[in-house]
Structures are given as structure tokens and as C-alpha cells.
Amino acid sequence: MIPFGGVSMRAGTPARITVVPCGFEVSTTFYQGTRFGPRRLLEASTEMELFDLELGFSPWDGGITTLEEPPLSDSAGPVVDALASVIGEQLDAGLFPLLLGGEHTVAVGGARAVAPRVPGVGFLHVDAHADYRFTYHDNPLNHACAARRLSELGPVVMAGIRSVSAEEWDELRASSDIAVFPAHELRERGWQARVVDALPPVVYLTLDLDGLDPSVIPGVGNPEPGGIGWNEFIILLHELFENRRVVGADICELRPIPGSPQSESAAARIAQRICGLHLRQIHGR
Ligand SMILES: [Mn+2]
After folding, report:
1. Is 242 exposed, middle or buried (0-12, 13-18, 19+ CB in 10 A)?
2. How many Å lie between the centroid of ligand 1 and the Cα of residue 199?
3. What is the CA(10)–ligand 1 centre distance, in A?
4. What is the Å distance from ligand 1's center to 143 Cα?
5. Which residues surround ligand 1, an ion (CB under 5 A)?
6. Looking at the predicted structure, is the pLDDT value of residue 84 above 80?
7. Among candidates 24, 211, 205, 220, which has minimal Cα distance to 105?
8. Which domains does the chain have, with CATH numbers?
9. What span, in angstroms and rounded, lies between the C-alpha atoms of 97 and 95?
10. Which of 248, 187, 251 is nearest to 220 (CA)?
């Protein structure tokens, strides 16, 4: 696998962040292609400036390693288990895991690694879809159930939701461990602080890229209009890392559109900013 940013870690740099690609895709229901997401994101990351102008440094100076993909399988169980294991090893080594999907199911692997190691961890779930079905097509590890599985491990705060079934919505409103910020309630300036305020002190971020508006990232499996804009999302990331300890993250559901690098370029920039914000958090820069 191409290393994130196209650069291998410099000798002597302490490792801080591990990028874990996982193009798992089995239960995708609409346009397929998220299996190519991690590879295209990593390729796009080699085409961008490594210096982050807004942060004033290059996160690649700070010790980022990219792992090979874990073995993929036709069923989600073994892949989720493999991810939980490899991400658990990174957490035990004091590293920040950044998981690249693949369908949103991979987030369950990240969450199952984090939950037993980080007491009280909560999940920030950015997505167009609630992903709150108990099971879908008889599969509890379908991508449409991702947030439901996370909610079994800790409190969940959802932001950007605009596609939900009536049953999911009834259940979400009845749950005291879940706060939902639908996209139509994110129109006022400063909404990011309200979302972060709803989170516990320690957070794992799960980002389904369709949480952003398809004008920013059209390359997703289930695009929904009315999503979070680029600058609004960057403000959310900053608000999150400035006010909460973030222990890991995933970026899911990138479905590259052949001939248009827009989506993977935006996703690579998000990955870069997450790495930079993590380094700033641990180094206090
Ligand atoms: Mn989604």
C-alpha cells in the first residue's frame, strides 16, 4: 500500500499515528466501489502539499505509518475482528489509529478496539444516514447498522443526519444515550460547539463521508443533498480536537468516481487535518 502522503516515516521520528486501510465492501446497497476508497485516498494524498497552511506545519514530520490492509473476506465478522485486533495493538502502543474504509461497517472494528481500552469513550458519528437499524438484510454488521453497533459500546452523538427511517427516528428519540443533530438543525452559525458539547471528554470519530455535502464529496455510495459544507466541517474538527481528547478516527464510504479526483482529494485533506490536529493535541502546539 502507498504510504499516506507518499512519504515513509523518517528514521528516528517517534511513531504517533497509524493509518489502517481497509477497503471492505460487501453490504453496499447502492453504487459500489468503496473497496477502492483507501487506495485512491492514499494515491491522492501523494499529490497534495504536505505542509498544512492553516496549522503551520506538516503532519508528516510527526511520525505517520501506513499499514497494509488486513485480509479481506466476504463476511464482515472476520474483518471487524481483524480490525479490532490490529487497531487494539496500535492503541496499546500509544498510537492514534486512523482507519480508512471501505463501507461504514469497518467503524465497528475501530469502536470494538477503543471501547474496552478507553473507559467512558463516546462516538461522534458524522453521516447523512443514521445507520441505526438493529439488523439489515439479516446482517447485524451491515453498514446500515454501524451506529447501532457503536451505541452498544458507548454514547453516540450524530451530526449531519438527513436520511432515516421512521422506525429509526422513533428509536433514536427514545434513547437517552444518543444525541442527534439532523442536518436541518445545523444551519445556524456556531452549531459545531453544540455538537461537541454533547460529547463526553474522550471521543472516537467515525466519519461517513456522505455526512458532507455531495457538492464537496460526490464520490460516496449513497449521496444525499443538504450536507455539511467544507468549512463548516473543518470548524467541527477543530472544535472537537480543541475541546475533547480524540483517541482514534475512521473515514469511510469513499467511492471514487473514475476520472474525477475531487472526492479522494477532499478525503485526503480531511485525513491530513485529523493527523495534524492530533499532533497539535499531543504536542500542545
Ligand atoms: Mn451514510
Report:
1. exposed
2. 20
3. 36
4. 8
5. 127-129, 208, 210
6. yes
7. 24
8. 19-283 (3.40.800.10)
9. 6
10. 251
